[in-house]
Amino acid sequence: MSETLTLRLRDVLYRTRGRDWDYSFLLQPVPLISEGWYTLHRRIFANVEPEPKPVLLRGALGIGTGQPFFATAFTDAVRADSQARPIAHYIAWFGADAEAAPGVSFGPGLVQALARPLGSVFELSPEALRNGEKPLDTVLRQRFQAALGDDAVSVPASTAHAVRWLGTIAP
Amino acid sequence: MPSRPEVRVALFGMKGAGKTTLLASYFGNQQRNAFEERHGYRLEAADAAQGSVLLSRYYRLEGGTFPIGTDGFDTLRFGLKVHELPHPSLDVVWYDYPGGWWETAPSDEAERDARRKALEQLLDCHAAILLVDSERYLKDGLTYVRTLLDQFRAEIRRIVNELSALGKAPDFPEQWLIAFSKADLLPDNTTALTLAEALREGAADQLLGVQKAVGGASSFGHEFLMLSAVRGDGRRVLDAHQSLGLTTIAPLVLLGALSRVAEKTGRGRAWGTLATALDLMRGLTEAIDKIDDFLPPKYRALTVLIKALRTKEGLSVSAEKLRARQKSAAHRGKALDAAAYTLRAELASPETQRAYFKTRLTDE
Predict the structure, then answer these.
(1) Residue of chain A whose Cα is closest to the Cα of B70
(2) Whole-prediction pTM value?
(3) Residues of A with CB below 8 A from B110's CB?
(4) CB-CB: which of B66, B71, B109 is closest to A34?
(5) CB A29 within 8 Å of CB A13
(6) pLDDT at residue B69, as a whole number
(7) Are B345 and B327 in contact (CB under 8 A)?
(8) Ramachandran area for residue A167 (φ above 0: left; ψ -120 to 50: alpha; else beta)
(9) By CA distance, what is A87's nearest residue in B?
(10) Burial of B65 (0-12, 13-18, 19+ CB in 10 A)
């Protein structure tokens, strides 16, 4: 069974790595807490080992009245780092649309839809990205987002997978 | 969980240096039935979920592929459980410091905070290991090592600045091991001694630079180790069961502490290969009654184990005999004695003899 999901990119937290640059956020929603996303990302994906078959996770961040998410992690079938290891994609989708989405695998479809902006940064060397005091991932994110087209993407979602329920995660 | 001694080790390495593979192999191989049968102990992960992730990486190694690169600082705690004993006798704790942190500023306040917490844990370590990637060493030679050491010095200085901003003294571990990861790729005649000679001749300035950065009293640039998580060709794993040096790390930390007691009491310095160092150590430390008095507080929980290395037998007793004593101690319920014999047996393993060397000179 195949269906189409529409994701607003401002609801997506997306972390991956390039051939030479280390894991960085390429998409970030407005931070839910003043410290930013790093710790929340680590909590959502704690003890998740990405494999070629996407892992699906549902839960909520215990912030305010609760922030539901639908997340996925998987290794890329094609892209590899400078050590020839497959890179991993970590995607967390927030908001009402994510909560209402059926338990289907949307990650590979989303990465496919983002292939052009990802391609615009994937091969860049960390040296080429240095820009004064700006953190590397800020520069990467700016370049990635400059190559984005629309604010939302429609992605094909494939057959239902088992979804791991994480419950509410403390911030 | 019962209170027990723990050996804490910080692991530093650039991304791709092999940290993830080392930790997966360290845990995975010490889970294997064949290992347990031979060594008389196994490791238990304190966090079952973390152990499950490590095992999935290890199974990937057994399947011939290396695990993907990891993201973020991790604390991994393993209990060393000797046969017949109800609980682990000793914990080995690893702090896996991500190589990416050397190269990039934190992306937000949360990551900055995570890095601060990681730094505080690093100060509590008994020893630190800097990984030198053998694959890159073979490809780029000493140019790579010099660059690595210069980058590491810059990272240490950044850590010192961060700690100063937190009002903390940069009290780094006194023991530093320079470990060549992926040592299976090195020529068969390579030993820790030949690697030590090459670095101390070709990267002397950079070694001294890091030594000063981590504190003049440190052993940085004096202890060398060959580590191999698997036998591979750089891209594929050929044999996930062939590792080198991993099980010697915890006993080397205890040996390092004992060696510093000898130095602090003016008795001299143990150096050389493992066999030589243990032999020298026996003469240097057997007259010291109160080892505790000469150990920094964070080492005192390890005193019993440290004393066990001060043996009259040096390495003249085989690993098999030591394992028999380990078994006997465990049978009598003597948990610490059993752990001590376990660690000594690891030092006595013939395959580890070429994997370690400590230089003689104390300064340049």
Answers:
(1) A23
(2) 0.90
(3) 33, 35-40
(4) B109
(5) yes
(6) 85
(7) no
(8) left
(9) B68
(10) middle
What whole-number distance in Å separates Cα of residue B204 and Cα of residue B361? 13
pLDDT in tens, B122-136: 778 999 999 999 999
What single letter denotes the amino acid at residue B35? F
Closest alpha carbon within chain A to B106: A135
CATH of B6-358, one of 1.10.10.10, 3.40.50.300, 1.10.357.140, 3.30.1330.40: 3.40.50.300
Lowest mean pLDDT segment, chosen from A63-72, B279-288, B324-333: B279-288
CB-nearest to B235 from A42, A81, A84 is: A84
Return the number of CB contacts < 8 Å for A and B.
Answer: 92
Query: How confident is the model over B16-40, as pLDDT tens digits?
Result: 899 999 999 999 999 999 999 999 9
Over residues B353-361, the mean pLDDT reads 86
For the question of an ipTM over 0.90, the answer is no
Instruction: Check A85 against B104: CB less than 8 A apart.
Output: no
Please tell me the predicted confidence (pLDDT) of residue B77: 95
Residue A18: band (very low, low, confident or very high) from pLDDT cuts 50, 70, 90: very high
Chain A residues with beta carbon closer than 8 angstroms to that of B52:
47
Is B325 strand, coil or helix? helix
* The dihedral formed by the CA atoms of B50, B51, B53 and B59, expressed in degrees to the nearest 10: 170
At B361 the pLDDT is: 62
